[in-house]
Specification:
It is elongated, with a radius of gyration of 29 Å. The strands form five sheets. An eight-stranded mixed β-sheet has the order 6-10-11-20-19-18-15-14, with helices on both faces. Helix content is 35%, strand content 25%. The protein has 17 helices and 20 strands. By secondary structure, it is an alpha+beta fold. It binds one RNA strand of 74 nucleotides through α1, β1, β2, β3 and α4.
RNA sequence: GGGCCGUUAGCUCAGUCAGGUAGAGCAGCGGACUUUUAAUCCGUUGGUCGCGCGUUCGAUUCGCGCACGGCCCA
């Protein structure tokens, strides 16, 4: 910020002046005994006569959001973490000395107030102050009161301003917190335990994605920020932790968009002696639990679409979805050359000799995914794009896998886990060949993980849920940056 | 990575098409006002027009490049 700009310079001079006069602009130790929310709850329905009957004085604190000055009396609005309340400060009530000091207080300052409640002529519940104190002097002006803060760059870089001024933003992040809290409640209720596995991994695994790399000085080794906790969680299932979940950050060194942030929050959970079909049921239960708990209903609006979570949700195979939703004929779907030509005609980039399974997945992302507005399970993915999934017993080219789509976004990805160590080694070797051929997203060989499988991973199903995207859907947010407090930005 | 759009006062925005160093509202400052709430009324301060180079007598305006942001595409 330009320190020499007019308004900030004026405030700094005022601060200097007040300090010279001996005012403590940052006093400690003020305590409140009631919040705005509590005031509204306790007194919101009382009329003036009832309010007069309350004998106590109350002490409140908040940030000054507006000032309407009448000379010998002033109305202000203060905002605390729970809401906004009007206060009325009258010279003959607080006394001349206090009133003079109060006149130094500006919009943006934190104040402490003592007083009782009454209703104004326009029936607004208001604190009639008997004293006011400055708690914190603001040295930068707040954004304008009417239009608020619109500039998205400032909103993201200085999120605190966004939170002060834009109530809907505050509500989004409060709801985010409640969603995460409710998810934990659900898994706890279902008998899961929450675990924490390494964020710094010497072999990054569990997802096809490019990792961030770092270096540990005293060990002298490269480490990677995890792209997924998956392989560690499955090691825990080998260890006999049969129902586990982890809800924390992943890091992927990839592009930034309305649906991608380099660090994002992922829920992963694993259930021993279960299949991907069991997890579809459990996923429906989880979402219904969230919807009922948070909204008390099973429909929400997302970006103009009404989304109905009533179960059961359709379970459509990936190839059927390409046929029925994507409108692609069987003659194209099941003919490698025709399929490749079709994909290219849609502007999709393909590697030389890219396998049909991978082409199908790319076509799906491009054509079908944006159309899946209502909750939909897409099942039975090609094995080539599912290197950690179990094969179907009756079709070795298809994985026991599903992805959940809502609002045109991939929300969850799950499968029956591949627990055959020899098959897993073959899949890793294939991934290693892709990596050698230049695919930076391909999986690394992880012998230590295979060793864990050799001790015996029971038949297990696991799932990952993109929490940020889920929060986007549940808070009607168009961009992932609207649900991450400090989204990644370029250095200014 | 490519295309398009944006960047003007603390904030929200005009102005730039047709080059002559900028306006409004809110905020700020001074004053009036003891039930206002986008308070009102009178007066008033505030800008290296994102940065750099070029064209020009003269650039916020035109051209090129860069930075940051947004949307779309890959």
């Amino acid at each position: 910020m330009d320190e020499s700009s007019g308004i900030i310079k004026e405030i700094k001079e005022k601060v200097k002046d007040l300090r010279a006069k001996g005012f403590n602009l940052y006093p400690s130790g003020f305590r409140r005994d009631i919040t705005v929310e509590e005031v509204v709850r306790r007194f919101g329905k009382m009329d003036n006569d009832e309010l007069k009957e309350i004998p106590n004085n109350f002490t409140m604190a908040g940030r000054v959001m507006s000032i309407r000055d009448f000379g010998k009396a002033v109305f202000i609005h203060i905002k605390d973490g729970t809401g906004k309340l009007q206060a009325y400060i009258r010279r003959n009530r607080v006394g001349d000395d206090n009133f003079e000091i109060f006149k130094f207080i500006d919009i943006g300052d934190h104040v402490g107030l003592k007083g009782q409640f009454f209703r104004t002529k326009t029936n607004e519940l208001t604190l009639l102050a008997s004293s006011v104190v400055l708690l914190t002097k603001a040295q930068c002006p707040l954004p304008e009161k009417y239009h608020g803060l619109v500039d998205v760059e400032i909103r993201y870089r200085q999120r605190y301003l966004d939170l002060i001024v834009n109530d809907n933003v505050r509500h989004t992040f409060i709801l985010r917190s409640r969603i995460i809290q409710t998810i934990r409640e659900f898994f706890d209720k279902e008998g899961f335990i929450e675990v924490e596995t390494p964020m710094m991994q010497s072999i990054p695994g569990g997802a096809t994605a490019r990792p961030f790399k770092t270096y540990h000085q005293s060990l002298g080794i490269d480490l990677y920020l995890r792209v997924a906790p998956e392989l560690y969680l499955k090691r825990l299932v080998v260890g006999g932790l049969e129902k586990i979940y982890e809800l924390n950050r992943n890091f992927r060194n990839e592009g930034i968009s309305t649906n991608h942030n380099p660090e994002f929050t992922m829920l992963e959970f694993y259930v021993a002696y279960a299949t991907y079909e069991d997890l579809m049921d459990l996923t429906e239960e989880l979402l219904l639990y969230l919807l009922k708990k948070l909204f008390g209903q099973l429909t929400i609006k997302y970006q103009g679409n009404l989304i109905d979570f009533k179960t059961p949700w359709p379970r459509i195979s990936l190839t059927d979805s390409l046929k029925d939703i994507g409108g692609i004929g069987e003659n194209v779907l099941f003919d490698n050359k025709a399929l490749r030509d079709f994909a290219k005609s849609k502007g999709i980039e393909l590697e030389d000799n890219e396998e049909s399974g991978r082409v199908l997945a790319k076509l799906f992302d491009h054509i079908v995914e944006p159309k899946l507005i209502q909750p939909t399970f897409i099942i039975d993915h090609p094995i080539q794009v599912s290197p950690l999934s179990r094969r179907k017993d009756d079709n070795s080219e298809i994985a026991e896998r599903f992805e959940l789509y809502i609002g045109g976004k991939e929300i969850a990805n799950a499968f029956s886990e591949l627990n055959d160590p020899d098959d897993q080694r073959d899949r890793f070797l294939k991934q290693a060949r892709l990596r050698d051929a230049g695919d930076e997203e391909a999986l690394f060989m992880d012998e230590d993980y295979i060793k864990a499988l050799e001790y015996g991973l029971p038949p297990t199903a696991g799932e990952g849920v993109g929490i940020d995207r889920l929060v986007m859907v549940l808070t009607d947010s168009p961009s992932i940056r609207d649900v991450i407090l400090f989204p990644q930005m370029r250095k200014k």
